[in-house]
Amino acid sequence: MSDDVLVMRGITKRFAGVTALHEVSLTVRRGEIHAICGENGAGKSTLMKVLSGVHPHGTYDGEILFEGEPCAFGGVRDSERRGIVIIHQELALCGQLSVAENLFLGNERARRGLIDWNRTNHEAQALLDRVGLRENPTTPVNDLGVGKQQLVEIAKALSKEVKLLILDEPTAALNDDDSQHLLDLLEGLRSEGITCVIISHKLGEVTRIADTVTVLRDGRTIETLPAQGLSEERIIAGMVGRDLEHRFPPRTPDIGEEVLRIEDWTVHSPAQPDRVVVDRATLSVRRGEIVGLAGLMGAGRTELAMSVFGRSYGVGISGRVLKDGREIDTRSVQAAIRNGLAYVSEDRKRYGLNLIEGVQRNVSAAALGKLSKRGWVNENEEYTVAERFRRSMGIRTSTVTTPTGTLSGGNQQKVVLAKWMFTDPDVLILDEPTRGIDVGAKYEIYSIINDLAAQGRAVLVISSELPELLGLCDRVYALSEGRITGEVSREEATQERLMQYMTRGQSS
Amino acid sequence: MTTKTAPAPAAAPPLPSRRININLRQSGIYVAFALIVVLFTVLTDGALLQPQNISNIIVQNSYVLILAIGMILVIIGGHIDLSVGSTVALTGAICAVLTVQWGLPWPVAVLLTLLSGALIGAAQGYWIAYFGIPAFIVTLAGMLVFRALTLTTLGNQGIGPFPDEIRSLANGFTGSYLGNVGLGPLGGADLVSLLAGGLCVAGFALSQWRKRSARLGYGQTVDPMPMFVLKIVGVAVVVMAVVVQLARFRNLPWVLVLLAALALGYSLMANNSVFGRHIYSIGGNLQAATLSGVKVKAVTFWVFVNMGALAALAGVIFAGRLNQAGPTAGMSFELDAIAAAFIGGAAVQGGVGKVIGAITGGLIMGVINNGMSLIGAPSERVMLVKGLVLLIAVAYDVWTKRRA
């Protein structure tokens, strides 16, 4: 048997006239961690869906050899029988069911049609030990954080005697601790001889744990490189097909007086009203300034932003919000918008866009009043506004009536930004503005943010990616367990320093 | 405002061919309606399109069509209303008590009835919008409660007869104010009806023309001229054909005049008013609407108030048509109205649908009802066909969406 556990050759996959994969080849050696990198839309996920049988044999051209034998998977069950398991970006767990029930879903430990609960929980415990998850197997999955849920997914894969484990963006939703644990676990699985294919946008992780990196671009294999000594810049160059000298557009800050001030802001959790989520936070943003808010997951960043924006989160809120030195009413979203605030959510599909409507109706959604007289909307003006933003922001869509659900992540984010720019806010709070967006589009979003600041607006950016905050912001606040634990200027800011503040005062 | 964009290609120009595709998908319902009309015209040897029968179809379905207008807004908002049948019965009973037993003048009675319908809607809207109980549950409870109140109000017997004005609103026709004109082989026809039809067509053509010029003025893409003319001529032919047939019979039914006004008003409201837009945005993505500053609760509340008022209007017309308010009035009307909305292209998840679509959906069911009874089909077969049509219509919608 050869050393190559998986060989994919000349894979071509078309969707309704669009070629998603063009003669893609991929060779994975036994027992390695193989990273696949590429911008959104490069074909990474499609390739993995071809491999795992989500796109069944016959819907694509090319051949797949697994352990030297040709494969013709008709569905996911076929590929799982051969030991190929894929863990999707959106976790496929039933939240109401227990960990053990999830682990053996579709593969139940049963005798004559009745579940053997002792065996189920016993075997589940063994699997949890293997992935280092100290939880009771009878705990409902909903009670676990995203990081632990990811481990349950991996344990589920192990229960199927996995030989090749495919992970699609496994750390995208995890904080640094959980990511760390997951990467350690993958290295552990490698030493057990399990081969891993991992799709990731986080190049730091890729260079850390991968043995080999394959770069895809526009549905083609660009190169396969040994990860030893590979730099992030080198991978990015392959992904974008050009050298990104600067990941951040240049900017000369022009900072004026203070616009937004949040004082002694305290928020309690709606689920457990005695738990403090944001604890006497005080921060300020000046005109033309881009201020970052750093924090680990669960530190209370989004909770802070959403509670300020019309009390959209939390109970028992106290504290003051001041604009230009005067206290303003932010008790409803309408009041917050009227007072010049805008909040771009971290989850644009859930909280930002009406996916079945076009760009035009989304852009106008937060400021229909500006386009209407006595309650009647002027659709022609609305169209003109949408067209203007489409041009100025480079929203790539065939028409402004195209449903936003069909746009790419970067273009969707531009639509959400356009929606809030149209309200002409003085303060913009951008929550993870580049999450799930490819490198090229990130640059465009950064340019837009810079322009917003240059127009004299105050911008507060929440981000999990420290390099992003360092590259973009004039000042960064660190948040830990709901408290502002530090404030650093652009000059003093380093990842290490921020990380210190972000982990300060943690009780556990 | 200038925004730098990264080195990337400019946006592709609009693709005209795609627009036509989309239009075909949206117009599927009208094509289906036309095919069903043709089918039953052939099956009934033309009896379907006889003047009296056209008039019957309109009058017999008027209340379901009025309900469908309210229901489509409820469904676009992501809700459902199961109580409208019972509301029709209760408001019919209220109207009967006000006119027959209390002897109030009819305009006052009708107004009070509409108000009571709005109150019924407000009561349900409160639980749905402000208390957060799913509309399915609230209106299921309403269905039982309002039916019970109907029985209490009526004391388990019918109340009638209604004043002539209310009866003619439901059953009557516009008068021959200007006499008849000869239409050659078609015989005499009422001049007022013909003029009204002509005015409608002219108004439609003019408004479409102005809309088109305005869009062109703003540099938007519009249908090519032949397509535009074809559309207007098509509408004109259909409207005038119906009007001529009606003018040859007994002029225009008053409910048709009312329906036309409602259809026009509510279409405008749904498409062009801030309130209408808010309904679509709530149904499309509730959280995004909330975070965009839409007063989600208030909008939902008023959608149900509106539904209640329209159900009361349907209640008055239904009672007036039977000349009696009865305890079993409006039975299963909610299902007809919901079916009309879904056949007319509404989406189960909300956010999608058109007033004209719902009316067309209601007419499709009305024509099937009428056509099948003309050929003497038993009622169980009518039910079977209506059920299958609903299923096929929604399946077609799901299928086109999946293909897109």
From TrEMBL, chain A:
Location in the cell: Cell membrane
Domain named ABC transporter: residues: 6-243, 260-506
Keywords: ATP-binding, Cell membrane, Membrane, Nucleotide-binding, Repeat, Sugar transport, Translocase, Transport
InterPro entries xrefs: AAA+_ATPase, ABC_carbohydrate_import_ATPase, ABC_transporter-like_ATP-bd, ABC_transporter-like_CS, L-arabinose_ABC_transporter, P-loop_NTPase
GO MF annotations in UniProt: ATP binding; ATP hydrolysis activity
Topology relative to the membrane: Peripheral membrane protein
PROSITE patterns reported in the protein's UniProt record: ABC_TRANSPORTER_1, ABC_TRANSPORTER_2
GO cellular component: plasma membrane
Database matches in NCBIfam families: GguA
Identification of the protein by name: Putative multiple sugar transport system ATP-binding protein
Species of the source: Lentzea jiangxiensis
From TrEMBL, chain B:
Pfam families linked: BPD_transp_2
GO cellular component, as recorded: plasma membrane
Keywords: Cell inner membrane, Cell membrane, Membrane, Sugar transport, Transmembrane, Transmembrane helix, Transport
Domain of life: Bacteria
Entry's transmembrane regions: 29-49, 61-82, 88-115, 127-146, 186-207, 228-247, 253-275, 296-319, 331-348, 355-376, 382-399
Places the protein is found: Cell membrane
An example molecular function term from Gene Ontology annotations: transmembrane transporter activity
InterPro entries: ABC_transp_permease
Membrane topology: Multi-pass membrane protein
Role: Part of the binding-protein-dependent transport system for D-xylose. Probably responsible for the translocation of the substrate across the membrane.
NCBIfam families from the UniProt entry: GguB
Protein name, UniProt field: Xylose transport system permease protein XylH
UniProt source species: Lentzea jiangxiensis
Upper classification of the organism: Bacteria, Bacillati, Actinomycetota, Actinomycetes, Pseudonocardiales
